[in-house]
Amino acid sequence: MTDEQAPQETLYGQYAGFVTRLVAYIIDQLIIAGVISLVTVVAGFVMQSLHINELIGAQRIAQVIMAILALLLIVSFLILYNIGFWMLAGQTPGKRLMGLRIVRTDGERITLGPAILRWLGYWLSAILFLGYLWVLVDDRRQAFHDKLAGTLVVYAWPEQEEWDRITPIRDHVRRFRERRRKSSPESR
Amino acid sequence: MSDTSDPAVVSVEGPKGGTVQQDAQAQVQVSQAQPEQPAELDFEELQLLSRLLVGLLLTGSDQLLQIVRGLQQEIEADPGLLTPVVADDETTLDLLRYLTLGLLARGQKRFARGVHRGVRLSLSATGWTLRTLDRWTDNRFTRPFRRPLESRLWNLEQETDLIIKEGRLEEQNARLLANRTVGEIIDELLDFMSENPDLAEFIQELIGRQSVGLAGVVQDNARQVSSTADYIAEGVVRRLFRRRSRREMPPSPLMGKPQTMYSLEGPPQGGDDHDR
Question: Is pTM beyond 0.90 here?
Answer without folding.
Answer: no
